[in-house]
Amino acid sequence: MSAMDSSLHQMLERVRAAVGDAAPLRIRGGGSKDFHGMRLQGDVLDMRALQGIVSYEPSELVVTVRAGTPLHELEAALAERGQCLAFEPPHFATAQGDVATVGGMVAAGWSGPARAGVGAVRDFVLGVEIINGKAELLRFGGTVMKNVAGYDVSRLMAGSWGTLGVITEVSLKVLPVAPAEATLRFAGISQADALQRLNQWGGQPLPLNASRWLEEGAAGMLYVRLRGAAAAVEAACQKMGGERMESAQAAIDWIACREQQLPWFQQPRLGDCLWRLSVPPTAPVQPLPAGIAPPLVEWHGALRWVHAPRSMGPQLKAWAQSVGGSATLFRAEIADQMSAEPLFDVKNAALQRIHAQLKQAFDPAGIFNPGRTVE
Fold first, then answer.
1. Is residue 365 included in any domain, yes or no?
2. Which of UniProt's keywords are assigned here (predicted)?
3. Which of 29, 85, 90, 89 is nearest to 62 (CA)?
C-alpha cells in the first residue's frame, strides 16, 4: 500500500471509529479559515497528509488534486502552463503558518474579485471524492462509484464547510490566463454613481472581470478590471475612460483586495466586526447610521463589506433580506476570535427542511464539523 493509500485508509478508519463512538470530527486543512463560523468542535481530522496533483491535462483544462494540497502549489503548477483558477480564491494565509488548501477552498466556496466576471468556485468543480458519514469512500462526477439520486454532489460540496463529508480529492476546470488585462480608475465617484455605471457597463459587450468601490480619503474611487482579448480590452479602455493604472501596481492591489489586506480592511473602529453582504448588483446604496463608514463594494455591486458592531447585525440582515440578499458576520471584533455566528442560519422553512434532509443523507450521525451550523 502506498503512503497516500495508507493516509486515505487511516482517514476512513478515523471516520468509521468516530461514527461508532458518536464522536464529532473537526475537518481541518491548513487552518486559514478557522476564524470564520460559530465554533470549532471535535477531534481534528488533519487533511494535510493527502497532498499532490493526481492528474493534470492542460489541453483538456482539467486538473485533479488531493484535498490537502496547498492552494499556492496548485496555482504555481497551473501558472507554469499559462493557466489559472479563474475565480481567484482567497488564501487568507497567516504569519502563524496557516495556509489555504484545495479542499478548504472548495469547502468554504469563497471566490475572489473575478467572481462577478467568471463565476463561483462551484461552477468550476467537476468532480469530488468524499468520505461520507457512514465511512464510505464515494466519487461523484466523472466515473461514479456510488451515487445519491437527485443530487449534484460535486457542486453541493462547494460551500458546505465540511458538514456533509470529508473532501479527499477534487477535479477542477481551469482556464488559460487572459491574454490582456487593464485596470481603470475613476476618481470622485459616489457609491450610487459607481453602482449605476457598473450596471450600465454590465449590459454592454465589455470584458468586465472585477470591480471595487471604496472611499479613499474623502473621495469615492471606482476600480474596474478588464480581461480578455487584447483588442477587446483596448477598445473598452477607450470607450469607458478613466485613468489606466500601471499594471504591476494594479495586480498588487487586486491581490490585496482578494486577501483583505487593503488599508480599508485593516482599519476598522475598535469593536467593529467585518460583515459580508451578498445582494443583487442592482440593490441601492445601503442606508447606514452615523459613525458607520461607507462599504467596500465588489462584484459590480453584488458583494458589499461593512465594518459595524455586532449589535448592528439584525439591521444589516434585515436590509439585505429586504433587497433579496443576505448578511453574514465574516470576521469577529478581535483577530483570532471566532465570529460566533452560525453559517447556515436558514430562516426559510422549506430551505431548513432541505438542509436537514441533506445532513441526514450524508452525515446521519452528525459527526462532521458540528458548530458550523445551527443545531
1. no
2. FAD, Flavoprotein
3. 85
